[in-house]
Amino acid sequence: MTKFEICFVFSLFAWLLGGCQSASKDDAQFGVQVLENDTWSVGIAPELGGKIYSLQDKISGREWMWSRSEGRELLAPKDGEGFGYGNLIGADELLPTLASGQWNGRQLPPHGELWRSPVRVVARTSDSLETQIDLVSLPLRYTRSVSLEGRDVALRYQLENIGDEPLPYLWAWHPLFTVLSGDQLELDPVSSLEVMVAPGVVDVDAGDTISWPGDEVGMDLNALYFGEVPKAGMKWFMDSPVDGKLRLRNVDSGATIALRYKVESLPYLAFWLARGVWGGAHHLAIEPTNRPNEGISPLAPAEDPDGWLQPGEVREWWLILTNESSPLS
Asked: Nearest to residue 227, comparing CAs of 251, 268, 198, 256?
């Protein structure tokens, strides 16, 4: 069993047995901020790393962000609890790594440290929010702004090395989109994808390379469908689409959300699709990232510039969500 598969099993165990161990608090205690215009209502929790816990489409009425609980409670993680115990709701950001490990004697926590760390609100307007945090595990300063721009929710990022030596890092977006009947994933065709883990999927194992959208193994990833199996899930990596664009569209309701991002900074794309596994979940994580795996770069900075920041270097990237829904009839 690979290290990733072991982590997956322990996370699943935490999911099934542990979520209630974290303590719920009311929204005010999480410093919740809500941005609204005619097309979006966006809920952000600065005390939870700036988590986007709600992404409400005002045109179709759809809430895009998945939650483990019907009440959509926010939870305060306790010391020592892993990612699977707490706030499996909405969109987190993973930094400086996903897989746990060490670098130069520093411990790097699994799923990074943002999801359980408060961020500072440095600017707030009626339609925007800017937050910032200096990481503990590595000397990195991370700044994000969220702004509503008509039908767009624009997320703009800045990462600065405030230390005195080159630093490796991984950043990945980690949203959990609810998957409903009729949902379709649309993106430019890609040649192949690498499977990381595939619980319940027939004829697919970790490490396999399959073609998109999986016809040869009886699945249709465009339709978010694994074939005639009651419970299945899969995580896979692939290159980002050349144009950095994809969308989720519901063929029944017309609810549609489009995503585009800066491919030059995020050349890889990971997905996690759950159809009945992970506590009965039906959700999709769409994870643009600077790394083709789950850890920090093992290569030297000159060999892997996307995975390193030099002292004083600032890197910027962006991600934009567009409401392309049709009005409710």
From this structure: 198
